[in-house]
Structures are given as C-alpha cells and as structure tokens.
Amino acid sequence: MSDMAAKPPLKTDVLQFGTSRFLQAHADLFFSEARVPRSVTVVQTSGNPERAKRLPALADPDGIPIKIRGLLDGQVIDKEQRVTSLKQAFSTHTDWDAVCAVFKDVDFVVSNTSDIGFAARPEDMDAILAPTASFPAKLTHLLFMRYHAGSAPPLLLPTELLPNNGHALKSRLLEIAETALADAGFRDWLEQMVAANSIVDRIVSEPLEPAGAIAEPYALWAIEAAPGVRAPCDHPSIQIVPSLEGPERLKLHILNLGHTIMADWWLQDGRPEGQTVLDVMQSERRGALEHILISDVLPGFAARGLEEDAKHFITATLERFSNPFLRHLISDIAGNHSEKLDRRIAAFFDWASTGGVLSAPSLSAILDRNRS
C-alpha cells in the first residue's frame, strides 16, 4: 500500500482514471480555474512502475505547474499556472480499497486511458477482478460496488479519442457486467447511468518533471448534450453542445487537414530533415495554406451551415500553427499519410458535398497526385 493510501482517503468531486500530462494541462487545470473549483482523485490503472513514481508529485499540496505558451488573439502568451485540483493519487494495483472508498461518493468520473488500457482482455469477463484487467473492467467492478452501496450512478465523462466515446465506454461496461457479474438489477442500474460523448483539444507539447506540462493557450472540452448531462464545472473551455459533429468536423477537416497538407508538401519536397509546422508558417506557404482553407474548405462548411464557426476555427488554427514555442515535426505528422488523406480530405468531400459537387481544386489536386 502506498503512503498516501495509508491515510484515510479524502472525499472528492471527481475520480480521474489516467495520469496523463494531457489531463493535467486540460481537465485538471479547468477544475482548478473554475468559478467553483472541483477536487480530484487521480487513479493509475496500468500499474506501470515508471508512471507510478509520478503519483506523489501529482498530489503536491502546492500544486503542479502548467506552462501556457503560444499565441492568443495575436498576443504572445508565456505564463505559468498551477493545478491545485488534485488532492490524492492512487494505483488500482496497490490502493484498491482506497479507490473503492473514494468512488462511492464521487459525482463525476473522468478518464483518458491508453488504447492498451481500454482494449478488451480475456480476464475482463472473470467474476473476480484480476489486477491485469482493463480499465473498463475495473470501472465495472467499482460501479458494482457502488450499486450495492445503494448510491446513484456517477456521470461518466470519458475523453479517449474514440468516436462516441461515452457510448463506447457504456457499451463495454454493459458487456462486462452481463458476462462477469450476471446481475439483472445491476444491469438495469447501469442502463440508467449517463456516459457523455465528448471531444477534447489542446496541444500539450512537453512534460515537466516530476509532474506538469507545457501546453498551448487554445483548449476545448466539448460535451454532447443529452438527458442527465451537465458540465463538471463552470469554465470557458468547457462547452455543452447540441451535437459533436460540428466540433469534430472542424478539428478533422481544418486543423488535421491542414497538418496533412503540410505533410504532403513535405513528402513532395523530399522529406527535408527537421522541418516543423512553424517553419512552414514562417515561409511563403503560409499564404498557400490559408488560401486552401478559405477557398476550398470554408465553402464546404458553409454548405453544412457552419460557415461562421469555420471562419473562427480557421483563424484559431493558423494562430496555433504559428506557435513560436512549439516544435512540431512534419515527419511526425506524415505517418500513415494515405489513411489520413482518406479521413481528412476525401471524407471532407463526401461530407461537404450536400446537394451538389464541392469545388475544391487544391484539395482535389492533392488527392489526384497521391492516387496517380
């Protein structure tokens, strides 16, 4: 048992699965900055010994540093903020009793686990929880404990990069409960639980040791409206939206599409070593990129009734690409280029061509060149 778990655990508003730098610079910072701050218990589910070393630092009473560096509305931002929402940190491998004690009272469950942590494992379907079980299996057993304690379900707010991540998580929980626990009452209780779909966006460029991170000024946590869904706190970067399609398409077909255009140029230029996004934005190609976004991409969003949203997002994206503190290598973006062309550019034509054919000659030329 860890030193922290040896003390009686504190009651907190949020139980967070995941110790990622992203969450520290995103949700955890929002909880600290909120008009009514939220308290958070962090839980590591992987058992990774290197990440376990981070746990004491996460709960430092003085907070952990987040350096915000970049451009915002044309101004250079370079400041340090502190995350003070993290009150305690546990591991499911060594502090299970403490995790259970906290879980029975939390209002919100936030997660940002790895693909490996989310992936199904054979032991997930065992009635007795195995230490090596996946994150959804561990969450199912915690919910089963809470159900037997007579408590209402918490609101689940997964942030994993999965389509309809709330629905995906709830589906996995129901599948595990059906096989491993076989309790009809518990299944009905789970069916009533709300698991919100959401998307998150913030570039977290570098870690700080032993905890903390460097991040850009831009940040978004868009949560899809549904019965029972509410924001975990009052913060300008947290938005309850009628549908995630708009935020998802903006990110995919403007920011991600812009990255893919740069990657295509990089490949055509013979893969210049060390070239970054900032290098492109400081060259004549900045104008070419802006032209494509305005002339080829914006009309597609206008056809879907999202012209004003797209105008604002294009402006924000060009500013994010011009971040003087961020060294984002084009070589890191260029992986799986053919797949990204399909998802970010070809799929844009399919989505935006409502009631007619979208005219986007620069994007068409990129697709034609890669298909010839």
Integer-rounded radius of gyration: 22 Å
Number of strands: 12
Compute the average pLDDT. 93
Multimer state: single chain
**Molecular shape:** globular
Low-pLDDT runs of 5+ residues are: none
Percentage of residues in strands? 15-25%
Question: Would you kindly provide a brief summary of this structure?
Answer:
The protein is of the alpha/beta class and 372 residues long.
What features would you describe in this structure?
This protein has 372 residues and is of the alpha/beta class. 45% of the residues lie in helices and 16% in strands. It contains 16 helices and twelve strands. The strands form three sheets. A five-stranded parallel sheet has the order 5-2-1-6-7. The protein has a four-stranded mixed sheet with strand order 4-3-10-9. A hairpin with a 2-residue loop joins β3 and β4. α7 packs across α8 and α10 runs antiparallel to α12. The longest helix is centred in the C-terminal third of the chain and has 24 residues. It is globular, with a radius of gyration of 22 Å. The N and C termini lie far apart (60 Å). The mean pLDDT is 93.
